[in-house]
Amino acid sequence: MAILLLLPSLSAARDLAGRPRVLDGDTVVLEGTKVRLHDIDAPEREQWCLSPTSAWYPCGEHAARALSQAIGTGDIRCQSRGTDRYGRILGVCNTAGGLNLNSWLVRAGYAVSYNGHTGSYLWEEAEARAAGRGLWSGTFELPADFRRRKRDARHGP
Q: Where are the beta strands (DSSP E) in the chain?
């Protein structure tokens, strides 16, 4: 019985490797499993942001494209950090060349540190913000706020 109780945590703890399919700026499918990049939050695919010239652009699509380009045609390896409430593996993912995708996305301004003031990528976020990279070059709604607003609009008052 104890072994059966351990099976879900053992499968969630395994590392995954291979050629990913990018779903959005912080989620890939690897070995048939959804992997959410741990401790970062990228704009949703349907999210739009305001550029420095006050033009709207699809920042969620930009983040997904940036992740795809960073991966290129190679494989990635994701080290599990557990699962989220939706059952997705939370992973720290690296390209075959050693690029930490989680860190790079935040440092390049395509994502933010997920847990605000306590996240793993605060230094990278501060660097992107100071340099005005990506999202920080214009105006944007935090992805978590965007999702919350959409959810509230669906459910009404």
A: 16-18, 21-24, 27-30, 33-37, 40-41, 49-50, 56-57, 76-83, 89-95, 112-113
Q: Is 31 left (phi over 0), alpha (psi -120 to 50) or beta?
A: left
Amino acid sitting at position 14: R
pTM metric for this prediction: 0.88
> In angstroms, rounded to a whole number, what is the distance separating the alpha carbons of residues 126 and 157?
36
The most distant pair of C-alpha atoms in the chain lies apart, rounded to whole Å, by: 61
Whether 146 and 43 have beta carbons less than 8 Å apart is answered as yes
pLDDT at residue 152, as a whole number: 87
Identity of the amino acid at 108:
A
Q: Are 119 and 105 in contact (CB under 8 A)?
A: no
